[in-house]
Write a structure and sequence with these properties.
Layout: H1 2-22, H2 27-75
């Protein structure tokens, strides 16, 4: 989870800082935009990671339930 949070922060920092630099802003504005992008990117990646993990858990639970139902059907 920490890796995803850090990757999101780095991605947000680079994207926001790069776009601000490309727009010819001053150094203070570039770093402010990059810092805001870092926070937003980290939070978005964390949210996305929880959605992905929840999907994996639901899929695994459904597969286990289907396997146990198939085993119960095979035994009868």
């Amino acid at each position: 989870m920490r890796f995803i949070f850090l990757m999101g922060g780095m991605t947000g920092f680079v994207l926001a800082g790069g776009s601000s630099w490309w727009a010819d802003c001053g150094a203070g504005r570039i770093f402010f935009d990059a810092a805001c992008g870092c926070l937003v990117g980290a939070l978005l990646f964390r949210w996305l990671w929880t959605v992905v993990v929840r999907g994996f858990r639901e899929t695994l639970a459904a597969k286990q339930q289907a396997a146990s139902a198939a085993d119960a059907k095979a035994k009868t």
